Amino acid sequence: MRIRPAAPAELPALQDIERAAGAPFRDLGMPEIADDEPPAPDVLERYRRAGRCWVAADERNRPAAYLLAEPVDGALHIEQVSVHPRAARRGAGSALLAHAADRARQEGLTALTLTTFTEVPWNAPYYARLGFQPLPEADLTPGLREIRATEAAHGLDRWPRVCMRKPL
């Protein structure tokens, strides 16, 4: 997989990746997550223009996975990582996270952060294998508290969630 910035014409493909990546949540009794709409084109474009929307391109240079990130309180916060099922278990997600870590280091940021479901095998357990550690509630920065509050307002706290951090 080759990591590169997303192109403007690829934004609909990123939405398709998000829909396909969400489908397995249905089998875990999380149909609301499976049916959740992907980020709108204007949201994806905002990340793309900021240089914070990367894709893992397959052998035909088509996006197979993508990552959105933004700086939050001295860390690069991973807003979204989605891998199309056809590319699962081929290193696309970990390659995107490694790329994000490299970019964060270049910008002088000290960590990667993310929020995720604790009981979904390809969420918190996966990130823990990559060196992310759960953050106790008391250690959340103001920006992470705001992100968690927004997630709760969208109903994501119906299932157990956690903030995780990986020092760089």
From TrEMBL:
<dbReference type="InterPro" id="IPR000182">
    <property type="entry name" value="GNAT_dom"/>
</dbReference>
<keyword id="KW-0808">Transferase</keyword>
<keyword id="KW-0012">Acyltransferase</keyword>
<protein>
    <submittedName>
        <fullName>GCN5 family acetyltransferase</fullName>
    </submittedName>
</protein>
<dbReference type="InterPro" id="IPR016181">
    <property type="entry name" value="Acyl_CoA_acyltransferase"/>
</dbReference>
<feature type="domain" description="N-acetyltransferase">
    <location>
        <begin position="1"/>
        <end position="151"/>
    </location>
</feature>
<dbReference type="GO" id="GO:0016747">
    <property type="term" value="F:acyltransferase activity, transferring groups other than amino-acyl groups"/>
</dbReference>
<dbReference type="Pfam" id="PF00583">
    <property type="entry name" value="Acetyltransf_1"/>
</dbReference>
